[in-house]
Amino acid sequence: MEPISFQNEEKQIDNKGSGIDDQSNKSTIKTSNTTTTTTTPTKLTQRPKSRNFSNIFHNNIHNMEVVGLTDMCFLENVEENELMNNLQNRFNKDHIYTYIGEQVISVNPFSNKPNLYTEQVLKSYQNMYMYEVSPHIYALAQDTYKKLLLSKESQCVIITGESGSGKTEASKIFLNYISKVCSGNLENIEGIMKLIIESNVVLESFGNAKTLRNDNSSRFGKFIEIEFDGKGSPISGKISQFLLEKSRVHSRAVGERSFHIFYQFLTEKRITDRLGLSNDPTQYNYLKESMCFSVSSINDSKDFQKVLQSLKQLSWSDQEMESIWRVLGAILLIGNIEFSNDVEKSNVDAVYISTPETLKKISQLLQCSEDSLEKSLISRSLTLGAGKRQSSIKVLLNQNQAKETRDAFSKVLYDRLFTSIIDKINSTISLNSKSNNNNSSTIIESTIGILDIYGFEIFENNSFEQFIINYSNEKLQQLFINLVLRQEQEEYLKEGIEWKTIDNYFDNTPIIDLIEGQPVGLLKLLEEACLIGQSTPELLIQKFNQFFSKNKHFESFETSNNLSIESLSFTLKHYASPVTYNLESFIYKNKDPLYQDLIFTMESSKDKFILSLFNKDFQKNNIGVKKIPTTAATQFKNAINDLIGKLNTCQPHYIRCIKSNEEKRANHFDYEIVKHQVRYLNMLETIRVRKAGYCHKQHYTRFLCRYKMISKDTWPFWNGTPKDGVMSIVRAAGIGSGGVGNNSTTTTTTTTTTTTTTTTTTTTTTTTSECQFGKKKLFIKSASTLFHFEELRQKILPSIVITIQRVWRGYKVRKWYRQELQRLREEKEEIQKQIKRKNSANLIQTHYLRYKVLTYIKKLKPWSMGPHYNKGHIMPTLWLRRTPIDSLMQSIHIIWWAKVKVTSLSMESRSLVRQKILALDLFGMGYSRKKEWDCRRKFQADYLSDDSNPKKSQFSESVQAMFQKGGDKEILFADNVIKINKRGKSQLRSIIITDQHIYKYDTKKYTQKKVGLKLHSIVALSTSNKKDTFLAIHFKQPIRDLYIDLGCDSVEKVSEVCTNLVQQVYKLTGTTIPLVFRDPLTFNNSRDSRNNGTDFVVSFSQYPKGKEQRQSTFVKGKGNTAIVYYNLD
């Protein structure tokens, strides 16, 4: 095949996948033979800019010197050295992906490449063709999903390669891309894809382990199927597993680890403490055997938290997870069971369990009978005879048999646990699961399968597991050969296409026949050995030598005298590499025994989860099934053949993983190791077939149905044969002998002659360089031609859709109009009537509202007439019920009344009103009254200028002298008061409060006592909340506080003095001094500049009964205490 290559990689990475030049609508398609300039179609709907194929090709040639060719099909000389140099060049430039046609070659760099998998890079591959973007698993994933949408056929991705080549990571990258690009309901897509991705976390933990070659090696094979509806939305999933390497539970090579979950589980101290287990892995024989407990590249504790989160996402309950931890703990403790020879039974070789505490703990974890478990580990029941003569005997086990039974029990427990986990995952992601109830009625149209199976393995000691794993790789390699190499060529010849057969590839069919051949193969002989009770590895190797000594792919010591092969070993020359297998444990591992005694013991468990693990065994026992159990090899052979059959029904896509070196060194390319993998992966042969073959083939009928709108002859109807219709489409698309634009056909005639008769058969095959017409199918040479058809279709489709929509909508509207014409007329009349009724109602409402407002204004007249303006009476309402407008009118009336009243007052009266309002704020009224005061009393300010004062003239003279001397301008308050001196004695004084000072005068001669106290020095006022008339005026230190009685004439004047002081201090300083109501009350009238003095503490009390007086009285007590007596009336 001669496919169109990809755009310049450097340009694509820098410009987010849009680095193709678009300077004109001319493009050049260049192959090894021709160069043709043609007109390319304009850009598609929802597609990137039109591609310039010439630039793409030349960019790849130019980039070869920089980063190597992106597609191996562009190698001029298809030689191994050229291929290797291209791979190495790209690897050294951090380009780990390369194409062979539509296959992706992935070279594991053993280092993180985060820049390759960002969200931005992922988006750059969406809706792009593979040849437009640089090689990546994202490109293959996009191509897989696009083909699923277009063809409605199931797809599969086969990921192959050695262990450690990066197959598991490749599957995760593929899944991540599919989850981001699927169409449909976003919530449903994220739901099902998230569950499938979360299941990977769980399966990696329970099914992967650290081996000598790979820190995260899959020790089982899995086939993930994502199921889609007709719209291309993922609606469910299914996971199949193949041959879990359960022997890893109890044995493995030194330097390897058991399954990750054991080490992760032990990091959670909260769980191990609850189960009574040690969290030290060295305390468990099964784990310490290989002497490897931690891996630098793995964080077990962090990974276990991810497992817990994933289990919850996959609908595991806390109870189910607790059962899983108990089974894991039991498996670890089973390895700690020790056996000792039972000397009391001297006549038989028997053992007893020497670690009873461990046994007891296991029975508690499994919730089964301790006695029954002990018996099933050291003895075995054998059933003899049948029917009425059937009997059962107990056979005691020796040391080796007991250990084999113990290890078999641990393997079966883990295998059943792993199977139950996969079953639970499948029930969660299935179409009918509770988490997927939105899609329960949807039909599955197609699937995408992802096969991640064991890589080819070669260890120092290769046992039964490696034999089965390498057998599965042989089957997959055979599938690849059949699909890519043999079947494709066979189909060319069958369809009558001119083709030169390429047959120099490595065909592994003889190896497959050797392993599973009929009537005799390695598996057949192994099965026979398992059926014969006295079979041994020695007898088995003799059988192998007897039947396969002349087979060139089989080798043993007896057949070759090769000293490197031991007597119980044999070598198979696999497609990847020769592997020597040790037969010592083949028979035992293939039998995979589980004795009935252990099943009966598990049947006694009280844990529902553990019972479910052995449910099928219980059912077989109940119905009396006595069939010979299927061996592990047969089970795997059936499973792998079923898988191959399923893969054959899908359209395959390949990711070929290559390990860059054996030492897991980061960014190191081992030339010889990679070359060996390139050879057995048949890459050179694949390139030759792809370069010479056709990238796409399709039945005429299907091609005609999809692309018939390209030609005017075939659209909308075609009455001729499908082949003629396809030829008309090809001509209309401008596909010819030179590529896109020229037409030519050639006729090939072949003659067939026999010995008796001569028959001339003429086969006419219409051919162009880009398209060949077979008997039933059209064959397209290059990807660019296929994309050319697709672009023409996408370009024409919008106009076809618009035409269909226009005609259909016009028809529907005309039909609707004819049917609805009368109804529309009636609706029009009804609408007009409704409009008239509405206008009439609006007119009535307007006149009625005007009438109500005029009536309301007349009712409000008394509230607008003086002198009282009807204040205190409830105003009339506008409507029958009170509405917010009525409350608003009441508030407006109060404000208006207040304004009328205030504007009629003189300035002096207004000042008095403001004082009364301030007094109201200070002392309160009604329930909020803080102290008794008379709000109706007029504040006279100057009480000493009254004619009732006999010394009025002396007062007037003193005031004049004060004004002249002190600069005061106004008297705010003047009256006789009782002042309390620093000794606690009462003194009659005249007090004058001006706009600046407080003056104290002698009442006899009206001489000034000391200097005036400045008002701005006042810091607070305090009085009690009782009916007394005392007031404390507090000054800044060192000025003494003033404590006075303002009720000398039995009239309360505390409110007047407080109001004046608060008002005047605010005018002078801009601050409001506080008025505090206290009982008891403190003041300091003994301090000066030399000492701080002491505080008087005054309490308040009513006069004793019979001793009442008109005025309040200050009575000094002991020390600095005093009592003020007052009357209640």
Write up this protein.
The chain has about 1150 residues and is of the alpha+beta class. It has 34 helices and 37 strands. An eight-stranded mixed sheet has the order 29-28-27-26-32-31-30-33, with helices on one face. Strands 3-4-18-5-14-8-9 form a seven-stranded mixed sheet, with helices on both faces. A hairpin with a 5-residue loop joins strand 26 (about 970-980) and strand 27.
Helix percentage range: 40-55%
* Overall residue-averaged pLDDT value: 82
Proportion in β-strands:
15-25%
- Helix and strand composition category: alpha+beta
Short description:
With 1129 residues, the protein is an alpha+beta fold.
List the helices and strands and how they pair.
Elements: H1 9-14, E1 26-30, E2 35-39, H2 53-63, H3 80-92, E3 97-100, E4 103-108, H4 119-124, H5 137-151, E5 155-160, H6 167-181, H7 186-207, E6 208-209, E7 217-218, E8 221-228, E9 234-242, H8 260-266, H9 269-275, H10 285-288, H11 300-313, H12 318-334, E10 339-341, E11 351-353, H13 356-366, H14 370-378, E12 379-384, E13 391-396, H15 399-429, E14 446-452, H16 464-494, H17 509-516, H18 522-531, H19 537-548, E15 554-556, H20 557-560, E16 569-573, E17 578-582, H21 586-591, H22 596-603, H23 608-613, H24 615-623, H25 632-648, E18 651-659, H26 671-680, H27 683-692, E19 696-699, H28 700-707, H29 722-732, E20 735-736, E21 739-740, E22 750-753, E23 758-761, E24 771-773, E25 777-780, H30 783-859, H31 884-903, H32 907-923, H33 952-966, E26 971-980, E27 986-994, E28 997-1002, E29 1008-1014, E30 1018-1023, E31 1030-1035, E32 1042-1045, H34 1054-1069, E33 1075-1077, E34 1081-1083, E35 1096-1102, E36 1113-1116, E37 1121-1126
